[in-house]
Amino acid sequence: MKTTSCCLILFLIFLGCSKLDNEHLEKKLKIALTSEISTLDPANSYDNISGSVMYNVYEQLYEYHYLNRPYELKPLLAEALPAMENLGKKYIIKIKPNIRYHDHPAFKGKPRFVRAEDFILQIKRLAFSPLNSTGWWTIDGAVVGINEFKKNVGNDFDKLIKTSIKGVSAPDDRTLIIELNQPSPQFVYKLAMSFMSPLPLEVVTFDHNDLSSRTCGTGPFVPTKIDTSKEIVLKKFKYYHESFYPTEGDRFANNRGLLKDSSEKIPFLESINFRILKDNKTRFDLFLKKEIDILFLPQEFFSEVFDDVGNLKEKIKSTNIRLQTMPTLTYWWVAFNMRDPLLGTNLNLRKAIAHAIDMNRYIEKFTTNTGQQSNSVLPPGILGYDPSTTLPYKFDLQVAREFLKKAGYPNGKNLPEIIYDTRSETKLSIEQAQYFKEQLAQIGIKLKIVANDFKTFLNKSRTGRLQFFQDGWTLDYPDAENIFQLLISTNYPPGPNVSYYTNKKIDEMYSQLRKLSEGEDKIKLIHNMENEVNKDIPWIMQYYSRNFILYHDYVKNYRPSDLVGSYPKYLRFR
Q1: Considering the domain 328-546 in this protein, what is its CATH number?
Q2: Which of 262, 222, 269 is nearest to 572 (CA)?
Q3: Helices and strands: H and E segment counts in the chain
Q4: How many angstroms separate the CA atoms of 254 and 552, rounded?
Q5: Range from 64-78, 311-325, 437-451 carrying the lowest mean pLDDT
Q6: Are 272 and 221 in contact (CB under 8 A)?
Q7: Is residue 9 predicted with pLDDT exceeding 50?
Q8: Confidence of residue 1 (pLDDT cuts 50, 70, 90)
Q9: Are 467 and 421 a contacting pair, CB within 8 Å?
Q10: Residue-range domain boundaries for the chain
Q11: Best label site of 81, 167, 298, 439, fewest CB within 10 Å?
Q12: What's the CA gap between 318 and 452, in Å, rounded?
């Protein structure tokens, strides 16, 4: 999933205090988001900001267990994990009965329940060209007949409705069958992504296939106010299907007392208030003033929260503020647009830039040494990651100057100005850009900084209008496939390959990767893919993130996670 920024990753902030106010007693959760909501359409929601709302409004066939690590999938709208036939190429999925949608004018006051055909409609929408879906990559070339469907339907909405997909069918209201071109053990993970949220035809037709700012899901919370630039308010869905708090968890869950509500019906909260607050200081101050309930702590406030040895200061602990430190599935790099006629065609220039940036100092300066320096294009905890791997570059100005000379620009002579686009307009984002500018100036490279808000940055990334920029990723599912799909040529935007990297060998190896189950063959292939990417340097790796999360003591059952966006349904105020 597309991340937001180096310290702008989705700063959820739950406001709280040592004294519960009326809103807390009424079970109203307050969350601060760091940017506008880009979209509420499941076909295009692919960043942490919109996802924080989406996974509380929409549901999918599967979800990740809240309290178990390593992560494991469990049924949500499905009755069980898929039954497999035809050597793993045929998925047969039974849908739970009596799953009711949120009310919508298209239903004319009558209840509408989930049917298997609703999943088929959403799969069709992912392939519908006018939507330019960021989720197309999940099915492209994987589902039997999907590419033919996309071509035949084109821009015609009537054809979208009337045309069937050869490999997707619903023999009855509660049975969904998906046939794949090749076995894909990872495909089940995609069925847990917001892209695969079911949608009724009545709603899609009523809203003219534009769900960017209007929703109709089955989730535990239903919107009562939607202003994607300021505020979104959700309330508990009174017809939410029966769901219960987990009855088991890992050692961490047991040690933290996170199983006290086992078997209790969820959600416990009555409402959620998402406020868009772009400024880090505003969010931090509101957390301390009891107006938000959980805070992903921005690095700039570490000195105010932690003492010299990294413990919470007494003034913080005395207000019943708690801390969780979480290794994440998020990591960062600086990216080149490989279609750019300057950077994309000159490997020696990319090597010069890679050797000219002191990432150790960057990590010290901008993460207060909380980031772990990257040694790989893969993150720790993923099959194929090797802690002994080394990158083909390191900070060395002399080597950087030599590569710049080989690139045809000795000491930067005659080199055009390179444009660096920021991910946000925050002070921190501008300072990071300035750091890159100063680093590259040491070898004669001139950098022009263009400041963007995150929505503008996303738009530029999805339309190929970036040249040099910071990028990052929060894994959608714990598999190397989810990383290498950022680097295959069929995933150009609206897909996630915003670097526009092309390498036929990577494309071919990726096709093999998708078929492999875990084992030595898969590990060997992953290493070969990483070595091939490192020859081209489309990315300059930075660091693996850790989150430092403050929350007030009355927030119970809180377990931070990159993959469980629906965590509010498990929270309780006491």
Answers
A1: 3.10.105.10
A2: 269
A3: 19, 19
A4: 20
A5: 311-325
A6: yes
A7: no
A8: confident
A9: yes
A10: 328-546
A11: 81
A12: 39
